[in-house]
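Continuing the batch. This is chain 6 of the set; chains 1 through 5 are on the previous pages. Same settings as before, nothing changed between runs. Recording input and output for traceability.
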Amino acid sequence: MSDGELSPWCLPQLKIVLLGGRNSGKSSLGNLILGKEEFVTRERTSCSRSCGVVSGRRLTVVDTPGLVVSSGFSERRRRAVEEHVGLLGEGVWGHCMVVFTSAPAGEEGEPGQTHLRWLVDKCGHRCHTLGSGGDAEVAQLLEKIQELVSESEGAQDAEKLRPVTNIRIVLLGAKGSGKTSTLNTILGLQGSPAPGRTAQCTTGRGLAFGRLLTLVDTPGWWMNYFGHESSRFDRDQLILSQSLCPPGPHVFLLTVRVDRAFTETYGRAAQEHVQLMGPLVWDRVIVLFTLGDWLGGTTIERCVESEGPPLKGLLERCGNRYHVVNNRSRGDGFQVRELIRKMEEMLAGSADGPHFEVRREVMEQMEEK
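Output for chain 6:
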């Protein structure tokens, strides 16, 4: 990076979700915005995300499965759009913009035009019609989106994310999944010796981007061992980890290697071991994919899709929260800063208190042993 070049983290960020009917041009629009072929232009059954830097902005674009709607913008189609978009909450309309991937057909006063007017009105008259699709047009669309964001932030008194000055983290995962390497990466422990097997819980502390971080590393489980098959000592250590960062952890990072096939057995083993923390633990789990350099040019979303139901099921259990780290490259700390941002976003939306509550009966059982 040259002296005059800004780090990507310093650039303004826009997060865009593409919604629409099948064959409405969502995926093509996503590719146009990012300036590269990231989304397959065929029917999809799950969401896909891609990132890039365009026109001096960091973009995160999410493509979604297309809605099954009738042809033409009929009353039935209007109602289908209203109901599906409404699933995101009534406030979503204040963040919507209509993008016409082709010029609207029909004469003024026709039913289709009336329903389209309703949609444009519902979105606050924010709309854009694609033309040639050149760089200038993409820049114009992004300017309109930026205006929408600025208006929304100025119009509402929504509580902004307040950085958590102290974040307590428990690392969970199978043996060899990269838990200890991740601890070293997060704490910036350059030149640390190659990690060996973690036999019992250990704690590390350090500062990163203005946050005091406490990380608890735990013994890993054999990836094909279910919960009851792990040793009593290892299970007790997992439970004990909660008490090593009092009054309780904020986040559980579940490490998963991207270079290993994620089988149904592996998924069940991971869920049973994490479940030892208690049924509410899943509200605070983020899946952390390690060995990110192994992906090469493949996105993690494509990797997840290729793995199938076991990995998708685990992500759904964790509220589809995930992050990718390359433990071999410390870089400028961007990957750690982005992870901290995701953790703080999760904590801001948590409804069960500032931290994970360590169950008293669990700790009493531990003390008796």
